[in-house]
Amino acid sequence: MQDVLLRAQNLKKVFRSGDSDLVLFENLSFQVQAGEMLAIVGESGAGKSTLLHILGVLDSASEGNVYFAQLDLGELSEEDAAEFRSRELGFVWQFHYLLPEFTAVENVAMPLLMRGGNRREAEQQALHWLQEVGLTDRASHRSGELSGGEQQRAALARALVTRPKILMADEPTGDLDNRTADMVFNLIAKLHRDYRLTSLIVTHNLGFARRCDRVLRLERGRVVEVSPQSLLA
Question: pTM for the whole thing?
Answer without folding.
Answer: 0.93
